[in-house]
């Protein structure tokens, strides 16, 4: 069935309950893939952190059409909730979807983020017509909608974001939802916000995070640290010290790159296709950086880059306590991260 935004959000927030009790499959498609991915995360949150997630892709479903219905009807080996996520679904997956929707039982919800499918797609038609499926198309938001999205992302992290700052973030990210989320996440970390300790975003905080020294190029340091090049890292740190650059200015681009690596790594682990995972990141990867970002994704597995983000976040908080201890802690963390990357080279 075709869903509006309110219907799809309600269904994803409470799968298998109420009006959604008979739904087996959610198809999220359209030109705004970041919007579709954001909706998919609602189902992930609803299932809970202990739920078992099964990742499938189009080639698997094409070669084994019964796999999807079997997974949807299976119980978790750990006794927890279970759900299935599909990447890159298209018309080649039609037999698998038909088997899922027409099967006798399917207790685990299935969700697919399929990108910009054509209106003539048989997969879309089946999802729109079948009572056990729900389909929603995401379009690129306009400026006003983007501001509301930014405010909503901030609210989920305990940050109260006024409309003028939301507009600045939208402009900074050129309306890209993933980049907006990254900018807001940095604000949340900077202000130490959370749902149980909400904070007000301020222009001063946004200025502090956006005030990169135009005469300072920290890109080489970012690549040296996350690429495990200790010699280059020490050289770049020396150059930054001579220019008087505070370590707080280094944390922001490092966190941005680490979060990007984490997102690409998650996609890579799910699909097994690194080039495709990098391409899926879209504008978040500048074309000149694709090679170095790809190498960094190979160096860092998901748990490793998660630890990097945690360490950088702690170091970022320390920089707000003053230059002394905070500066030393940042340098220590950069050395620790670079050494770990060097061991994986």
Could you characterize the architecture of this molecule?
With 345 residues, the chain is an alpha/beta fold. It has three domains: 5-137, P-loop containing nucleotide triphosphate hydrolases (Rossmann fold, 3-Layer(aba) Sandwich), CATH 3.40.50; 150-176 and 183-203, no CATH class; 219-344, Zinc Finger, Delta Prime, domain 3, CATH 1.20.272.10. It is built from 17 helices and seven strands. The chain has helices at residues 5-13, 33-47, 58-63, 66-73, 94-102, 122-129, 143-156, 163-172, 177-191, 203-210, 219-227, 230-243, 248-271, 274-280, 290-299, 302-319, 323-344; strands spanning 25-29, 52-57, 82-87, 110-115, 133-137, 159-160, 199-200. It has a five-stranded parallel beta sheet, sandwiched between helices. Helix 5 links the parallel strand 3 and strand 4 (110-115). Helix 7 packs across helix 8 (163-172), helix 13 crosses helix 14 and helix 13 packs across helix 15. It is globular, with a radius of gyration of 22 Å. The model is unreliable at 211-216 (pLDDT under 50).
Write a concise synopsis of the structure shown.
With 345 residues, this protein is of the alpha/beta class. The chain contains 17 helices and 7 strands. It is globular.
Helix and strand composition category:
alpha/beta
- Tell the overall outline: globular
Radius of gyration: 22 Å
Q: What does the main sheet amount to? A: 5 strands, parallel
Strand tally is 7
* CATH architectural name of the largest domain: 3-Layer(aba) Sandwich
CATH-wise, what's the superfamily of the largest domain?
P-loop containing nucleotide triphosphate hydrolases
CATH class type of the largest domain: Alpha Beta
Task: List SSEs in N-to-C order.
Answer: HEHEHHEHEHEHEHHEHHHHHHHH
Q: What is the percentage of strand-forming residues?
A: 5-15%
End-to-end separation in angstroms reads 49 Å
Helix segment count?
A: 17
How many domains? The number is: 3
